[in-house]
Amino acid sequence: MEKQLRTESDSVGELSLDSAAYYGIQTLRAKVNFEITGTRISFAFVRNVVLIKKAAAVVNKSFGLLDTAKADAIIAACDEILHGKHRKDFIVDAVQGGAGTSANMNVNEVIANVAIEKLGGRKGDYSVISPNDDVNMEQSTNDVIPTAGKLTVLTLAAELIAELKRLHAALLQKAKEFNGILKMGRTQLQDAVPMRLGQAFRAFATAIDRSAKRIEASLSEMRTINLGATAIGTAINAREAYFTHITEELSQLTGENLRRADDLFDGTQNVDGFAAVSGTLKALAVNLSKMCNDLRLMSSGPRTGLGEIILPARQNGSSIMPGKINPVIPEVVNQVAFLVIGHDVTVTMAAEAGQLELNAFEPIIFYQLFESLRALTGAVKTLSDHCIVGIVANRERCAEWVNRSVGIVTALNPYIGYLKAAEIAKESLKTGESIKSIVLREGLMDEKKLDEVLDPLVLTEPCGGH
């Protein structure tokens, strides 16, 4: 069946588009111009743009700036979209030129056409409701888009922080479960001194908790918005009633305690707040990847590696080697970390590259930042559910490595001196005789004192646990 078309015009000319489409001519031009990633603008981002449009309509209606019937139709259209309708009509690519004008107009046109139908008109008849004059009233792309970006970061970061808290709890549980298991600590992949397996997992938990708090602290900048600044910070075309009340109304709609930037020029031209958030995500990625490196090393083998822990078997590890199981969950978290670290470079470059009164590169900042938040959320959830909670300690292997190591000789330094301890370590490595046996044979310490010095609690706690 042949599609029916309607014709719309703008300052560039005329275009025909599907008469069933709720988007309009400016959206269609953007779709043609920006076939870049094949990924549409995030619907989480769309929802936040729509919330801004709804807040604007509410304020403009309250103060008689916008006709009541038009305002009610716009608000009703916004509510439909917020409930998930018309998702297929948000068609512009996530990466686009124009500082986000295409994304803003895609939302403006869909809201306008939905509202037009509610007033009994036909899609594309912008004499009923104008995407620019009515839906975009008192606004500019340059204050709408960064504000929506900040709201989306807050939304996605809340999901990530919730997963980080779950991971932190899972790691603490393992720390408690493994607290009595002595293992060898290693530095530079060489034997160091004994520690408890639980201490390794507590250190993981501490790093994750610190990462979550760092992210949370960075989000305070996301609650300072430039809505009302319009084009560059002068608030041109924004009347006093709207300017005074829009931030408060948006706060009520979003449930976020938003505040208007003290310097609207700064709030419009500088996007270092997004770079700051991205930096905390990179730091989290570094901690996650380091932890997953350790999990892979500690579980290596199972017969010819360290084999101190056993990771849950999630799937076959090879199409050719029977019985092989790979650490696939830590591996995928490593890869997400690489992705996020690369995204942070992009965000940094885009934030730096803005000129004068506007940063034109917010679309790529949001594309990368939103993906980092989503990917990290998925990776952390996967790590918690499919790896950490199912880790089992290999007590026998841990004990074997401690017994075979000469690392405990370090504890004897205060009693027999570094040089003598080094001599004993070399002899133990050469002959296989235990450190304890050599010390007793040479009469360097009495057995009671030696056992006290080599007690696991003394070896693994500051001041012997006192």
Please give a structural write-up.
- The chain is mainly alpha-helical.
- The protein has three domains: 133 residues, Orthogonal Bundle (Fumarase C, Chain B, domain 1); 210 residues, Fumarase C, Chain A, domain 2, CATH 1.20.200; 60 residues, Orthogonal Bundle (Ribonucleotide Reductase Protein R1, domain 1), CATH 1.10.40.30.
- It contains 18 helices and eight strands.
- The strands form four sheets. It has a two-stranded antiparallel ribbon. A two-stranded antiparallel sheet has the order 3-4.
- Helix 7 runs antiparallel to helix 10.
- The longest helix is centred in the middle third of the chain and has 37 residues.
- The chain is elongated and about 100 Å long.
- 45% of the residues are buried.
End-to-end Cα distance, whole Å, is 83 Å
Broad CATH class of the largest domain: Mainly Alpha
Instruction: Assign a percent range to the helix content.
Output: 55-70%
User: Counting H and I runs of at least 4 residues, what is the number of helices?
Assistant: 18
Order of helices and strands: EEHHHHHHEEHEHEHHEHHEHHHHHH
**Overall pLDDT score:** 95
When the domains are counted, the total is 3
CATH-defined topology of the largest domain: Fumarase C, Chain A, domain 2
Number of strands: 8
Strand arrangement across the biggest beta sheet: 1-2
Main sheet: strands, sense, barrel: 2 strands, antiparallel
Q: Give the overall silhouette.
A: elongated
Strand residue percentage: 5-15%
Which spans of ≥5 residues are poorly predicted at pLDDT below 50? none
State the CATH superfamily name of the largest domain. Fumarase/aspartase (Central domain)
Radius of gyration: 30 Å
Secondary-structure class: mainly alpha
